[in-house]
Every structure is written in C-alpha cells, then in structure tokens.
C-alpha cells in the first residue's frame, strides 16, 4: 500500500532497513491474544518505598485495574467530570482535524504503523517530513488511544522495538544497543513488490546527533497504551521487557558524573538544532524522570528486572532532590542567587555550582513575578540557563517531578506572563529569544533559528496538548480553554502550521510546514482531554509520597 503522502518522497540516507524475512517477530507478537479489562478505579502509582516489598509483577501489581476513565484524578478541582463527555458541542474544525490526521497515516504491509511528520503537498522539498518520528508520533498515538483505536499504537511500539535491535553506526562509531531511532520511513519497491523500513538513528540528522528522547517517549507511550487499553500482555512480553532494560542501561550506567542528571549534546531532543541546550537540559531530565517512573511500574521483578528496579528507585530519589533543589527558580530563589558569594570551597557552600550573580540576564528580573516559578533550562558548573522551556516544565508537572506547590507556581507564571508565553498562539517553546551577538555565538548564525522563530522563541501548537494536560492536573482547566480558543481561531485557516513566528506568535513561521501532523494531533488530544479529563490518566503520574521534599520553598509563601 502506498504511503498516504503520495509522491515526491526522497530516499533516506540511512542504510538501516527491515526486509520481509526480518518481520517474523512482529507478526508473532501481533498474533498474541489480548485481554479485555473492565473499567474500574485507577491504580495509585506505587510508592518507591514499596519497591523492596513488592511481590512481583502480576495481576495484583502496578497495572491492576488499569483501564479506568475516572481514576487517578485526585488533583482535579473544579474540572469537568468524565460523565460530561457528550455535553460539549464539537468545534467545527474537529472533523477537519481528524480527516487531516488520517491522511498522514503510514501503512506497512497493510497495517497502520504511524503518521508522517507533515503532509504538505505545497512544499517542493520533502526533506525528512515524510518519515515517522518517534517523538512526533506521541500526540498522534494519544489521539488514537483516546478515540478507541489502539492497534496502530501497538504496531508502532512493536516495530520500533525491532528497529532498536539493529546495529547502529554513525561513520565508524557504533551506538549503544538500547538507542531508539529518531525516525523511520516505509520504502516501496514497485518492481519487486516489496516494502522495507529504513531507520535513522541520528546518522542523517542535522549535526548527526542521536535522539536521547526517543527511548523515553517509547517507554512513556508503552505505559499510556497499557493504561488506556488494559492490555497487560504487551508490556509483559520478553521483547518489551528487554527493550526497556536496554534503554535504561544507557541511562543508568555508572561513569564520572557527580550529578544524577543526564549529560547531553545540543540537538538531542525536540530542539534538534544548535540552541545552547547542551549539558543538562530540562526537557531531557523531565522525560528521563517520567520514563523511569513508567518503567518502574512495568518492569517485572524477575532476575533480570529486579536489579533495574533497585537502580531506578535510587536514581529517582537523587534526581527529584537535585531537580527540585537546583533547577527550581522563583522570586525568593532568584533573590538568593542575586546575593550569592562566589569561590566557596567546602561542603557547606551555598553557591554549589559557583554561579556568578552577574550572569543573571536583565530580562529575568522583570519577568519573574512575586508568585510563580519554573524549572530553568540548564544547570551545570558555573552556568545556569535561565530561559523558560515549555516542554520540560509541562512534563515536570505531569510526571510529578514538580511538587504540587511547584506545579501551581508554574501555572501561576503562565497566567501572570500570558502575553510572553502564550501571546496569540500557544505555546512558546522557549522564552525569551536570543538575538544579536548572543544568537551568533549560541546558534552559529543559524538562519532557521532567528529571534522569535522556530526553536528560538517560536510558538508551537503541538505543545497545546501538554499545556492542557498540565492545566487539568493542577485544576486550572480555564487556562487550557482560553489557549484552545486562541488556537481554534487560526489553525485550520492557516493550514495547521508547524510553528508560528513573532513575539506574540502572530505570523505563520517563515519555514513552517503546513498540515504538520503533530499540530493537528496536539489540538485533538487537548480537545479530548478537556472534554473527558479521565484521559489524563494515561499520561499523568501522581506524586510519590516517598520522594524527598525540596529544600527550597516556592515564592507563593513569600510575603512582603
């Protein structure tokens, strides 16, 4: 079957492919019987303190009663009840969005396998927008799960699992066994009548950077699939268990690190171009935290899994403490940093990273409200990146990396700085934009990441689903409704652009693709979650009471 995007596709530079003989394992897994689970109350996520006492993984374990439209929403206050699913009149563009999403479907040997990045027939140069990206498919997968169509998600999870097992090389260097692809493409040989897959693990990417986030998104999506369908058999398969362990092996290996955070190169996540996010970017740390918590629920406590469970529990304690203590910024903490002494040498040092107070950018003093806060972009020796990054902060809320107080403070910030972070099209991927000399140094004069464009302060509609999920979890659905109303005024009329440019997000991006799949899917997921908040359970984790509380207090408790 031909790819939905039709002609004009260019062959991937990757030499990694899947032939018919390699597909036996997928067929075998797809043929396994699946179970149906009646709708019950949702489970409470296992506390880390219970890990050592667990009796193993089974019907009485973490996934017991997983399929539940009304569970896991204890933090919802004043949001629509799940019984109100049919009380909302659908917006006229919802039907168009579903049609556009279905046009992006990719089929492999007759089975739906994913969605391409964009179906922009007006663009002469396809580049890699005709490929299925792991991170891009997540909102599409959630839309199909929420619509009762889980088969495509199951197919995607299994196929990418097989791709993980391939040998991966960039030039003459071999990547880690657990690395997941950034993307893959269905290739059609009309003469032979054969379909094959070609995967890109970073060897064709801009800058040749492997996607650190792909494996995390895969684990998060596997949990979402299980939570939505109640099908425990997929996560229990030896193949999925091994896939999770391989991903975790890359992240939990011991080395020279003195921090529990992951050290990453620039361009290793959604911001896949040079933007100064090298080091310990908030997006990767939040996804890492969430993937660890999801894996903790799904790993079996057998001989192979038990060691990983223990490592995860230890890492989560250290990671939550580190992030909540050193990445968190509110009015009081900003004032403390402003007064830091430097060159402190002892275990009692307050300025642990030797940050120079003069490095605090001028814009931050006016941007930071008295009530509100956020996780800053990066923390490393003598360096703090004080920029706001939306994805990392939204995932911090959904994964409960942020405490309830910190989650509320992030929402306070969005409300207080609506013009800056939302503007006329939600949501700024980062704030503020870098420009002039700083832009030349940080981006290397990147013509695509000019100020208030693309990754450099551009507005990305796909982030609407993450904002909506965070709003529902924190009991602020009115913020999501307001943002969705803004998006509905423009998205269909503008052809579902990839991103918007300008300080307020007023203009369609100068190089934005039209009919960008994750812009479409992000809107649909946001709409469905707001109409039926029970969907939040598949992508949200409750706070673990065993986690260490942060040392620093949020600014809401600060009084003049």
Automatic annotation (TrEMBL):
Q: Which reaction does it catalyse?
A: Hydrolysis of terminal non-reducing beta-D-fructofuranoside residues in beta-D-fructofuranosides
Gene3D superfamilies named among the record's database cross-references: 1.50.10.10
Q: Which UniProt keywords apply?
A: Carbohydrate metabolism, Glycosidase, Hydrolase
Q: Recall the GO molecular function terms of this protein's record.
A: endo-alpha-N-acetylgalactosaminidase activity; sucrose alpha-glucosidase activity
Instruction: Tell me which EC number(s) this protein carries.
Output: 3.2.1.26
Mention one GO biological process in which this protein takes part, according to its record: lateral root formation
Q: Which InterPro entries match?
A: 6-hairpin_glycosidase_sf, 6hp_glycosidase-like_sf, Glyco_hydro_100
Instruction: Sum up the protein's function in the record's words.
Output: Invertase that cleaves sucrose into glucose and fructose.
Family the entry assigns: Belongs to the glycosyl hydrolase 100 family.
Q: PANTHER family from the entry?
A: CYTOSOLIC INVERTASE 1, PTHR31916
Q: What is this protein called?
A: Alkaline/neutral invertase
Q: Which organism is it from?
A: Panicum hallii var. hallii
